[in-house]
Amino acid sequence: MKKVLIVSQYFCHEEDGKIIFPGGTERYAYGISKELRKIYKIKILTFTNNKNLQKIKKINGMDIKYVYVKSNKINHILRDFYSFKEVNKELAKKYDFVHIIGCGYHFAAGAALACIANKTKTAYTAELASYHENKNFFSNFLDSIITNKILNKINLIISPSEETKDMLKKELNEKLIKVLPNFIEKTFYIKNKKIKNSLIFVGRFEPKQKGIWTLLEAMKLCVKKIPSLKLIMCGDTDNLKVKNEILKRIKNYGLEKNIKLPGKVNEKELKHYFSISQVFVIPSNYEALSIAFVEALSARLPTISSNIKSFLEVTDYGKYGIHFKKDDAADLSEKICKIMKNESMIKEYSELSNKRYKKYLLKNTIKDLKKEYAKILD
Question: What DSSP state is assigned to residue 80?
């Protein structure tokens, strides 16, 4: 049986016997690890700022190593060094294949360099594209002379969406890039009584990427028309400054009674929050392909999302969901108020979501992923 090392920037963890998924990268890495272990000997190498996770050696029967890296600006800059160092050390155990998964472009390059140095075949799933326009001059210069050259030497680059591919191919060899959508394993639907005028957001509290400020601004506008409007925000951040700013804005906007913050949730809790909510909202400014979006579709929730290309792909350009102008709180507010005042519209989009999610089931993606692995390994 061939040995495969999954190197994931983030991974899920267990708390009180329950598996916690802080974000989509964790779900993706866990899902493919669980499926691939049926045909390969799998080990997971991942990074964490939680010292306690270092003690864990297995998760759901899979071998895992959590590498502790303190969360600070210096370590963020040095993330490619840490990924190179740890992957290089692990590859002394001789693996046939390495699959790198992450949002961080430089994290991936560090891990890829270790694979190249050890002459190990490698794939990289880019959970978030490099996004040239969102980087400073030095970062772009570094990518052009080092990062891109490293990633162009691996065997396969997996893009979760056409939008991500469009971004990646500006800097990387298009021949290496294959679009394989993110996925869910099963439906998140459970029948329950809905809270009237209720929204749900799921994701990391990263304001720039996830559009958190736009969402809060839209809520401030919405409650003027629908005072009973509720928003459940499932997720969290390790950045105390961001967390305090979110709490400050909620208070300043007078939204303490309208917004619930349950923090990071496990799958059972997420299903519950989906089941009591009427509409899913995701205002991201850029995204590869949100797994939370697909989970919401499977929970039969109507969706309101920003009009970025990856979200337009998910809804087939508005056929299966509602879109608003990216970073436009007034437009988002208008879309929320419109659907909340129209029960038949909620029902219509709920039925459309139930049809659409099936495109993103794990069985479809994993079938194609196994074919790609076979091409490289055989």
Answer: H
